Amino acid sequence: MTEFTTRTTSPFRYDIVGSFLRPQELKEARAKFANGEITQADLTAVEDKSIINLIKQEEAAGLKAVTDGEFRRSYWHLDFFWGLQGVKHVNLEHGYFFHDEETRNDSAQISGKISGENHPFVEHFKFTQAHTSDGVQVKQTIPAPAQFLEEFLRPENQANAKEFYPNQEDLDHDVATAYHQVIEDLYAAGCRTLQLDDCTWGISVNAFANLKKKDPHADVSQLEALQKRFLKVNNEAIANLPADLTINTHVCRGNYHSTWAAAGGYGPVADTLFAKENVTAFYLEYDSERAGGFEPLSKVPDDKYVVLGLITSKSGELEDKAAIIKRIHEAAQFHPLDKLCLSPQCGFASTEEGNILTEEQQWKKIALVKEIATEVWG
């Protein structure tokens, strides 16, 4: 019988991405706060209560690394951007376009020099840590630095970025430096597991697929240059950090109200992302044909982990256990089985709207992840 390495730090054999469905009480409190019916203190009290309850549920489910469910956020990424110095909350004409749906129209724009001092997520982490049992790790999720840059590639935001940062290199440097500051502050607060959530690679493979569909011989040099830019800012942000800080990344193709935004296999980004990003593990969406095959996993160095997102968070229907186990072994043809783990493909509520499933179905998904992982890796 094969013996597998016992995981004592993230990623774990059965794992999560980060966000959970918001409980009804929290949804109602956020709506009341938006309407001016309750104070910030009132909302924070409901958030605190909801997070404490969630942590208990995560621990009861056997998770070895828990999150606050992103319960204090409206979006998985924008709330972090708004917490940086020199960044403001704006509303654009349109939101993000997903398959058959459009999100709310919130965005972020630059209002001054970007820096990372006094980010509110540090206090959020401290609260979660204080209410987590001994022996259970707290995973802090934040959007990747590349995701911040992606926000300013939106046509509506490009002029704003150039106004404050005429030189692209200056913007990239300040973003990496700001992130590094936040990460150092999180570490000082006790954080030892950090996850960079990054849809830029999903957007990139979608762009490659669309371009090649129009012309198989199309010039992809601009897309490749953008990949290098994203890789550089991510790696600079996480350079020279303490050795006992585990940094992973999560890649997906959009997750809003059970819809998606991009499609395409990992092939076009494998040589850049998998081979060169300085993280411990890649949490990868693999719950549909839109993610392509497992062949690109051969580009992941053998000392890195891949967390297979084979269980969808977009619906409540439970996957067939045997089929998932078969897919894990198919992936192991391209990356060692001992370096594989299992999770849902994304969070259950990347925005406060959440995906279209019930809380009961959400926890059954988590239980299935654990059951399968235990059967495969022990």
Describe the fold and architecture:
This protein is α/β, with parallel strands linked by helices and 378 residues long. It has one domain (24-377): TIM Barrel (Alpha-Beta Barrel), CATH 3.20.20. It is built from twelve helices and eleven strands. The protein has helices at 24-34, 40-60, 78-83, 120-130, 145-151, 155-164, 168-188, 200-214, 221-237, 267-276, 321-331, 359-377, and strands at residues 65-66, 85-91, 97-98, 101-102, 106-115, 137-143, 193-198, 246-251, 281-285, 305-311, 340-344. The strands form three sheets. Strands 1-6-7-8-9-10-11 form a seven-stranded parallel sheet. It has a two-stranded antiparallel ribbon with strand order 2-5. Helix 11 links the parallel strand 10 and strand 11. Helix 1 (24-34) runs antiparallel to helix 2 (40-60) and helix 5 (145-151) packs across helix 9 (221-237). The mean pLDDT is 96.
Number of domains: 1
Q: What would CATH call the architecture?
A: Alpha-Beta Barrel
Shape category:
globular
CATH topological fold name:
TIM Barrel
CATH class membership: Alpha Beta
Compute the average pLDDT: 96
Amino- and carboxy-terminal Cα gap:
11 Å
Helix count from the secondary structure assignment: 12
What share of residues is helical?
40-55%
Question: Compute the gyration radius: what is it?
Answer: 20 Å
Structural class: alpha/beta
Proportion of residues in β-strands: 15-25%
Query: Could you give the count of β-strands?
Result: 11
Element pattern in H and E:
HHEHEEEEHEHHHEHHEHEEHEH
Largest sheet geometry: 7 strands, parallel
Pfam families: Meth_synt_2 (PF01717)
Domain Cobalamin-independent methionine synthase MetE C-terminal/archaeal: 17-353
Enzyme class: transferase
Protein name: 5-methyltetrahydropteroyltriglutamate--homocysteine S-methyltransferase
